[in-house]
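From: lab user (bench 3)
To: helpdesk
Subject: output format question, protein + magnesium ion

Hello, I'm new to running complex predictions and I'm not sure whether the block I got back is the full result or only part of it. Here's what I submitted:
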Amino acid sequence: MKKIQNAVSFYRELFRSFKEQENGHFQNAYSAVREQAIQQLAETGFPTKKTEDWRFTDLQELLEQNFTLAQPFDLNQEQKKKIESLLPDVPNSIKLVFVNGYFNKEFSQTQHLPKGLHLEVKENDLSSIHTQTESNKNGFHLLAEAFSRQGVLVRVDQGQSIEQPVYILSVSAGGSEPLFFAQRNRIVLGPLSALSVVEQHLSLDSQPGFQAFQTLLELDDSARLDYYQFQNESKTFYHLNQVDATVGEHATFRSHSIDFGGKLVRNTIRVTLDGTGSDATLNGLYLANGTQHMDNHTTIVHAQAHGSSNELFQGILDDQANGVFSGKILVQPDAQKTDAKQSNNCLLLSEQAKIDSKPQLEIYADDVKCTHGATVGQLDEEEIFYLRSRGISEVAARSILTYAFAERVIEQIKIPLFKDQVEAAFNAKFKDYLTAEQ
Amino acid sequence: MLEIKNLHAKIDGKEILKGINLKIGTGEIHAIMGPNGSGKSTLANVLAGKDAYEVTEGQVLYDGKDLLSMPAEDRARSGLFLAFQYPVEIPGVSNMYFLKTALNEKLKYHGQEEMDAADFLALVRKKMKLVEIEDSLLRRPVNEGFSGGEKKKNEIFQMAVLEPKLAVLDETDSGLDIDALKIVANGVNSLHNKENSFLVITHYQRLLDYIVPDFVHVLYKGEIVKSGAKDLALELEEKGYDWLK
Ligand SMILES: Nc1ncnc2c1ncn2[C@@H]1O[C@H](COP(=O)(O)OP(=O)(O)OP(=O)(O)O)[C@@H](O)[C@H]1O
Ligand SMILES: [Mg+2]
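Helpdesk reply: Thanks, we reran it on our side. This is the complete output you should expect:
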C-alpha cells in the first residue's frame, strides 16, 4: 500500500513539472479533466494484486520506478531511416508519426486525404477526444487523461468507405533514462462508413520507458472498422494500453492486438455491442520470451439482440515468460439471440513459461449461444514426427508448427503490407527463440 | 536395399517386435500381412525413426548404412518414405508449402539446388495427375478435414513428389473405395522401377492383385513366421492366420 502511495505522489509531482514545462498551455477546456484525473488518482490509487482484474499482473516494479517526462526529440539520420522503413512507401499514404509521444510532422502525411476522412492532431486541448463518462477508471486510464499532450481525432463521414489505411506510428528512441509518455486517440465512424487503422508501437533502440495509451472507438450504425494494434517495443518498455469501443446497429468491428515486445504489456479492451445485429471480432497474438509479461483483458458486452462476437487469442510463451488472458462475455437481458464465441490457446515452449487464463461468461438472456474454449500445451509430437518423416528437421518442424499456430491470427490481417511486416517481426523474434535453445 | 537383422523393439516397456529378420533387395516389392496388433505399424514406425519406440536389440542396414543411428529426417532425406496408416492433420500448414519444404530439404541434403516455386508447381501438376488428387486438397492445410480416403491419397501423392528409394505403405488400401484403390495401385506401379523398393503392409489380398509383390511375409506376434511368394497371400485369405500358430 505504501509503495502505491509513493507512486501516486510520484505522479502528482510529475504532473506539477508537466504543467510547468507546458508553461500555461494548459489553460483550456481540457485542463479541468487533467486536474480531476490527478485528483481521482490520489483517491483511488493504482491497482494492486488484490484488485480482481489485476491479480495476475505484478505492477510493483513499474510503480517503484521513476520515469522522466519525455521531451521533444531530434532524430538522427539513422533513426530517420529506420522510421521510414516502418512506414508504407506509397504516395499519399496516410501517416501519423509520434516520437516519444510527440507528433512528428516530417514523417506524417495528413494533407492529402480521401474525401470523407478527417484527421486532426490535437494539442494540449484534448476536449474533443475526451468523451468518456466511465466511472471505473483505473490509475493508468487516469494517467492517460492527465498526461496526454497530443492526441489524434479521426472521423469518417456518413457513407464514406476509406480504402487507404490510416497508419498511426508511435516510436520510442533516445537514451537510457526511462521515459514516460501518454496518448489518447479517438476514432469516430459515421453511419455506413468504413475504415482501417494500423496502430504501431515500436522502439528504435533499447530506450526504456512507460507508455499509457488509450483509444476510444465509436462505430455508428452499419459502420465497419478494422483496427490493428501492433506492439513491438524494446524489452525494457511498459506498455499499458486501453481500448474502448462502442459498436452500433449492424456495425462490424474487427480488432487485432499483436504483441511481441515490451517488458510488461497490458491490453484492456472493452467492446460494447450497442445496436441490434452488431458484430465484433477480437483477435490477439502474443509472443513472449525471457521474462516478458503479457496480459490481455477483454470484455465484450452484448447489450442488444442478434449480436455476434468472435474472439481468438493465441499466445506463445517461452523461457520464463508469463501470459494472462481474461475474457469476459457479458450478455445483458435485452441481448437475445446473441452468438458469442471465445477461444484462447496458449503454447508453452518451456517448462517455466506460465499462462493464467480466465474465461468469464455472464449471461442474463435466455436465448443465446455462447461457447468458449481454452487450450494450453506443447507442440504435438505426432505432428512433429510427421514433418520429420518427410525430411524436415526437428527445429524447422517446431518453427513451422509454431508459425501455423500464430498464423491463425496473422492470416486475418487484411492489409498485405502490414501483414508482411508482422510476419517478418514474428520470424525475427522466433529465430531468437530457436537460437537461444541451441 | 534394406536388411533387418534380429530387430527387437519396445514401447512403454512392452516388447512388440521380437526378432524380425527381413531382407529387401533393390527393385523388389515385399508385402507384410498379419493380424491386428501383430506389430506391422510398429515395424514401419521403427524404420521411419519414431522416438517413442525403443530398439533393444538388432540392426537395420539401409543402403549399407546403419539406419537406426540416423535421425528421422535424415532417413527421409536419404530416400525412406512411410505412408502412414493414420496420417495426422496439421492445421495451419498448407500442403503445398509443406511438400515444397520437404522436397527442398531432400535436395539440399544431396547437395542439389533447391527448387523454385515455378519448377515445383510444374512437378506438382505432373504428380497430381498420377494419383488423380484434386487441386483444392493441396491448397488446404495438411490433411485437415480430409476424408479417410483423401488422407491416404495424399500420402501417395507426397510419395510421388518425393520419389523415395524405399517406400513403406502401411495399410494405404484400407479406407479406399475400389476406384481409389486402383488409382493408388497405378501410382505405385508407375513409380516402381529397378532402382526402388516397396514394403506394402496390408490386410487384403485384393491390393496385391494390383501391386504384385515378389515376396509375402506374415508378421505374427512380433515375428515373421512365414515368408513365401505371392500365392501366400491367397492362402492367408482362405485360411486366416490360425494355421500358422
Ligand atoms: N504405447 C503403447 N503401449 C503399449 N502397447 C502399445 C503401445 N502402442 C502400441 N502398442 C501395442 O503394440 C501392438 C502392435 O501394434 P501395431 O500398431 O504395430 O499393430 P498392427 O500390426 O499395425 O495392427 P493393425 O493391423 O491393427 O494396424 C498392439 O498390441 C498395440 O496395442
Ligand atoms: Mg497398423
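A quick orientation on your result: The first strand of chain A starts at residue 68 and ends at 69. Let us know if anything else is unclear.
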